[in-house]
From TrEMBL:
InterPro entries: MFS_trans_sf. It comes from marine sediment metagenome. This is Major facilitator superfamily (MFS) profile domain-containing protein. The chain crosses the membrane at residues 6-27, 48-69, 75-97. Keywords: Membrane, Transmembrane, Transmembrane helix.
Length: 103
């Protein structure tokens, strides 16, 4: 996200497209591996329910955050949106890493 914000700020559209493509490919490679792993560790009777709940939660989050991100991008800029999201993700990761060190 931070690279996307920098490339948008610098007006480098090809780099932005390549980063989106890379993220999309990584997600679609990771998803079948995750589903296969979950299939191994979950009960067969619960697998479909858990995956359905996961898809439902993802859809609800998209319904909530897509309009908020659209408003933010319209009011400020897309570059600023990506920059804020990148900073937010970095902070969340740092919080999780500090929590793991304490445990």
């Amino acid at each position: 996200m931070l690279l996307e914000a920098i490339f948008i700020w610098m007006a480098i559209p090809l780099a932005i497209i390549l980063i989106y493509l890379l993220i999309y490919v990584m997600y679609n490679i990771r998803r079948p591996i995750t589903v296969d792993y979950l299939g191994d560790v979950m009960n067969k009777d619960q697998r479909a329910t858990i995956l359905s709940v996961e898809a439902l939660i993802r859809s609800i989050l998209i319904i909530i955050f897509a309009p908020l991100f659209g408003f933010f991008a319209t009011y400020f800029s897309i570059g600023m949106l990506f920059f804020v999201l990148a900073i937010f993700m970095i902070l969340i990761n740092l919080i999780f890493l500090m929590g793991e060190k304490v445990s």
